[in-house]
Design brief:
Layout (H helix, E strand, L loop, with lengths): L13 H26 L5 E4 L12 E4 L3 H17 L8 H23 L3 H11 L2 H26 L13 H5 L2
Antiparallel strand pairs: 1-2
Amino acid sequence: MGRGKLKMELIENEKSRRLTFQKRKKGLTKKCSELSTLCGIDVCTIIYGPNNHTKDPSVELETWPKDHNEVIRIIQRYQAATIYKPPKKSSNLSDFYIERKKNIDSKIDKLRKAKYPISDELITHYCASSGDHQLGLLLRRLDLKIEAVKRMIEFRKHNQVINYNPHDHVDHLFDQK
């Protein structure tokens, strides 16, 4: 049976905290040893122990592997790899949100095109085949619809319901020839 969820907070009891540290450090170094042996890769851990509250308040330092020269070699190999080959893509929080916004905008565009597949084509065709007078009428009609929608929004904000037909005020504009 598995362990329950562990609260991630400082263990108040110092003796218990030190014991937990020792157990987890032992488990971590065992995992590093297994990973290195089974996969044939270089693994290095640097563990700073809890402060000694005796006369010497220096921090304990342990490494795996224990050989200091091997640790230095792995660290230098890592530094050389990161200097000559910077990460392919480095991002911060603002980059994450910019990318997320682009993805959402792309999805919205796809959904809009799926829902209204010919609307863009119709507008393009209408604008290309219409004269200035026709485009002026279309612009006037759209302006009237925008104004009507704004009025409807204002009325709804004030909890007033109105019966509104958006075609009542603008149909006569297209009847003229």
